[in-house]
Write a structure and sequence with these properties.
alpha+beta; 3-stranded antiparallel β-sheet; 8-stranded mixed β-sheet; 362 residues; 11 helices; binds fe (ii) ion; Jelly Rolls; binds 2-oxoglutaric acid
Length: 362
């Protein structure tokens, strides 16, 4: 199969040689046109099965096709804003980028007030880990707050918009930040890439990591982690394998192909086997320099430390992990939708990913 981006380059060069009209070089950049093409090119269930089986059985093709979608998207990304541009450049290279001091104290006030209410109400019941259940009456006042403590060995209490049915107070305002909006939309090359879900989290000291090495899914999703406390090595910063959003024919991409094959469901997030990465530090030995060792390959890591008000963007199809904390870490993580955003996501959904094992053609 041809690599579509080579073809795009050739077409571009030919166009330049014969026309001065750079603005009118037409590439598909519309979700609806792309969907129409998919229906024309892959019209039947048998065609979809064939493509699914190829991606399933052929590791090289899996890499080539997923990377082709990224390369094409990277070429189409446009932004008029210098800060967005440099953020996107680092996202392409590393899969993660921090913007310092993105939020002012006054912008953080509403969410901080909500955090104070929760903390004052729960007291020592802020830990161990679990889900925060909130009930609200008709006039929007909180009538009960409860930690279900469903993760007794973990330190993370989560308040998810998914279970709440709305964003926690103050989050919507943070999500409306113009830079966040522009970075997410530029990264996905989609005007549908607005903020979809949020997770507010309190990470307290605990015997186990709240989440080990994983990718959120094969789909493209950008998250922005807003730090509500300073996060240093001792309060559980996220680890991230630099560049692991790309498939570079290394241990990362071999695992991603296995995840594509053997983790058909999206929840819980596809994890690496416990012993795959010999690097699950406790807060006393955590560092920001030692590479991650995956199957004897050394991979550079990034560490999501920063100050209150900083925002850390990361692509969630890269490998990342939680860490344990020696003192409280508070963050809110906003995420974009998978549906109707990148062409890769639309393609994967179109061929029926993720499929149950019984629905995978061989
Ligand atoms: O809380 C963390 O450090 C990890 C967060 C994470 O895995 C995610 O939001 O996808
Ligand atoms: Fe994650």
């Amino acid at each position: 199969m041809n690599d579509g981006t080579d073809q795009l380059d050739l077409a571009w060069e030919k166009w330049l040689a014969t026309s001065n009209d750079v603005e009118n070089f037409k590439v598909i950049n519309s979700v609806n046109v792309f969907k129409e093409r998919l229906r024309e090119l892959i019209p039947t269930v048998t065609d979809k099965d064939l493509i699914y089986a190829t991606l399933y059985n052929d590791y090289d093709m899996f890499l080539k096709i997923l990377n082709m979608f990224d390369d094409y998207r990277y070429k189409c990304m446009k932004s008029n804003n210098g800060t967005t541009e440099s953020c996107i450049a680092n996202m392409r290279l590393d899969g993660m980028h921090k913007i310092e001091n993105l939020y002012t104290e006054s912008e953080l006030t509403d969410l901080t007030n909500f955090c104070d209410v929760v903390e004052n109400h729960l007291g020592h019941n802020i830990s161990p880990g679990g889900k925060l259940h909130v009930t609200v009456n008709a006039s929007g006042q909180i009538t009960s707050l409860h930690n279900n403590k469903s993760m007794p060995n973990h330190g993370e209490l989560r308040c998810q918009s998914k279970s709440l049915g709305c964003h926690p107070p103050g989050v919507e305002k943070l999500a409306k930040n113009l830079l966040v909006d522009e970075v997410c939309k530029t990264w996905l090359n989609s005007d549908k890439g607005g903020i979809w879900r949020s997770t507010l989290s309190w990470l307290s000291p605990a015997p186990a990591t709240h989440i080990g090495w994983h990718i959120d899914s094969i789909y493209d999703v950008i998250k922005v982690m807003i730090l509500l406390t300073d996060v240093e090595l001792i309060n559980g910063p996220m680890y991230f394998i630099k560049g692991s959003h790309r498939l570079n024919d290394n241990a990362v991409s071999r695992y991603k192909h296995r995840i594509f094959k053997w983790s058909p469901t999206e929840s819980p997030a596809p994890r690496l086997p416990e012993n795959a990465i010999i690097n699950d530090p406790d807060p006393a030995t955590i560092d920001d320099v030692t590479p991650v060792k995956l199957n004897n390959e050394e991979l550079p890591k990034l560490v999501a430390t920063g100050k209150r008000g900083d925002a850390i963007f990361f692509e969630t199809s890269a490998f990342h992990s939680g860490n344990r904390a020696l003192s409280m870490r508070k963050t809110v993580i906003l995420s974009t939708p998978t549906k109707d955003t990148t062409f890769k996501n639309i393609f994967l959904e179109y061929i029926g990913y993720p499929r149950k094992l019984s629905d995978i053609p061989t």
